[in-house]
Structures are given as structure tokens and as C-alpha cells.
Amino acid sequence: MVSVDRLLAFAAVSLLLIVVPGPSVLFVIGRALSQGRRAALTTVVGNTLGSYVLVVAVALGVGAVVERSVVVFISLKLCGAAYLVYLGVKAVRERGSLHASFTGGGPVGGSLRTLLEGFAVGVANPKTIVFFAAVLPQFVEPRLGHVAVQMLVLGLVFNALALTCDSAWGLIASTTRDWFTHSPERLARVGGVGGLTMIGLGVTVAVTGRKD
């Protein structure tokens, strides 16, 4: 089982990434603005389910390799760190387009359709894919065995935090529509800070992690 200190450290790093507005958060906020609170929360559930599919895929596909190969482990970490920096730079450069993203709601559909669309966004989120492939293995303890199980547990922590934070985004967006839709300058600042945070996370991933 994962130690408490590893769980807490992973939760802190996860929260840092989760609060940065990415594809899933933008999608949730767009749904909240166009279709209301229920659609936003349904989208969050779909996102979370899609995200945990990624956890399972990484745990079963990457866990065994990471357990046996330090070279593969370091390569995954550095590639993931580089891509996080790239995403951060892109977010900073495109921060002015956040307003358009938030105001484009899309057609209204049923709850099942909303859930499935949220699932699709969650399972295809590049930020989450990179995080699980490059960062998740940093917090497992191979000496304890059952690396895949450790990853699944850590993934539950990530998804519980994501469910809470994304739901908060949706609720805030649904109750403060005017603030989001009529404040492009403030939205641009949010995007800029989020991009810088992602760059910092990428650098942190590159220079930290298991030493074994």
C-alpha cells in the first residue's frame, strides 16, 4: 500500500495541476454557462470516469515497465515534463482566447449525452494523459510491490480531488455567469497564471522524483 507521506505529496502535486484551467475545466465551464448547473455537474462525472480509465491504462500498461526499468522511468518523466512545459507556454500564449471558449456552449442534449461527452473530454485530455504517464510513477514505491495497485490508489486520490475542484468550477460558473462572460481581461489573467503554474510543474517533475 502507498505510504501516507507519498499520498499527501501526490495529492499536493495533483491539486496544483487540477486547479489549472485545462480542456476539462473549460468544457465544464462552457456547459455551466450554456446549460446550467446540472449539465456542468454531469459533465464533471463524465470527465472523472474518463480520467480514471487513463489511470487504469497507465497502471496496467506502464506499471510493470516502470517497476523493472529505470531508463524507461526517467525517459517518461523527462518527456512528460517537457510536454507540461509546452502546454504551459501554449496556455500563456493563447490566454486571450479563453473568453471565446467560455462563451461557446454547444447544443443542449440529454444527461446521457452530456455524460458521454464529458467522458470523451476526460479520456482525451492531454494534460491528464501526460500527468498519469510521467508523474504518477514518481510516487509509487517498488520495494512494497504491487506497483499497479499503488497507481490505482493514487489515481483515486487524483480523481477525488478533480471531482471536487471541477464541480466547484461548474457551480461557480453557473452562479456567476456575468463575471465570466463579461470579463475577458480577468479571464486572460487566469489563463496566464495557469500557464505559468503548468510550466513550474513541468520543471518540478523534471528535477524531482524517485532516485532508485
Shape descriptor: globular
Rg result: 17 Å
pLDDT < 50 stretches: none
Structural class: mainly alpha
Could you please describe the fold and organization of this structure?
With 212 residues, this protein is mostly helical. It has one domain (4-207). The chain contains 11 helices and no strands. It has helices spanning 4-18, 23-35, 37-61, 63-68, 70-93, 98-103, 111-123, 126-135, 147-175, 177-181, 184-207. The radius of gyration is 17 Å and the shape is globular.
Topology (elements, then pairings):
Elements (H helix, E strand, L loop, with lengths): L3 H15 L4 H13 L1 H25 L1 H6 L1 H24 L4 H6 L7 H13 L2 H10 L11 H29 L1 H5 L2 H24 L5
Helix pairs in contact: 1-9, 2-3, 2-9, 3-7, 3-8, 3-9, 5-8, 5-11
List the main descriptive attributes of the protein structure presented here:
single chain; 212 residues; mainly alpha; 11 helices
What's a concise summary of this model?
By secondary structure, the protein is mainly alpha-helical. The chain is built from 11 helices and no strands.
